[in-house]
Amino acid sequence: MRGATSTPNYIKSNPLSAGLFAPKVQTPEEVAEECLKKIGTTPSLITGTGNRLASFFMQKVFSRKMAVNIMGDTTKKIYRIEW
Fold it and tell me: What domain count does the chain have?
């Protein structure tokens, strides 16, 4: 779980809002700024407070099956996929 970044291809995919509790879409500048601040201090990171919170819940609170279902349902919603 790393969250969305508003790159040109992401914008072209025309996603809908993921909902009230979804982490906000970050700009490339926000992601780069946070990454540059952490160079040399941490081997990896999840950018954005919302993404870190969502990652915590997906990994530590929800079962794997529930996390997969949430991510699948969210993806279907933002890209208007009906099954």
Answer: 1
